[in-house]
């Protein structure tokens, strides 16, 4: 895993946290929830190739 993906996840986390706080103080709790949910979905799509690689290496390791 490269350091770039970690930096991208951290940067997105900071942006989502800031947007979440701004929206909550503006009284838009439902939009803050959707911003957080969108951030989680984006991070999971970034990590999906790494999960596939992990499971493939586990299958090769255990000979399944």
Short description:
The chain is about 90% helix and about 0% strand. It is mainly alpha-helical.
Question: Top keywords for this entry?
Answer:
single chain; 64 residues; mainly alpha; 89% helix
Determine the number of helices (DSSP H or I, runs of at least 4 residues): 2
Q: What's the number of structural domains?
A: 1
Mean pLDDT, nearest integer? Answer: 94
Q: Give the CA-CA distance, first to last residue.
A: 24 Å
Helical content (DSSP H or I, runs of 4+) = over 70%
Which term fits the overall shape?
elongated
Oligomeric category: single chain
Strand content: under 5%
Protein described:
It is a single chain. It is built from 2 helices and no strands. It starts with a helix and ends with a helix. It is elongated, with a radius of gyration of 16 Å. By secondary structure, it is an all-alpha fold. The protein has helices at residues 3-25, 29-62. Helix 1 packs antiparallel against helix 2 (29-62). 89% of the residues lie in helices and 0% in strands.
Element layout with pairings:
Layout: H1 3-25, H2 29-62
Helix pairs in contact: 1-2
């Amino acid at each position: 895993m490269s350091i770039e993906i970690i930096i991208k996840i951290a940067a997105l986390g900071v942006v989502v946290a800031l947007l979440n706080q701004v929206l909550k103080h503006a009284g838009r709790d439902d939009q803050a929830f959707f911003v957080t949910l969108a951030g989680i979905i984006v991070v999971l799509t970034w990590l999906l190739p790494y999960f596939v690689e992990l499971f493939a290496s586990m299958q090769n390791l255990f000979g399944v």
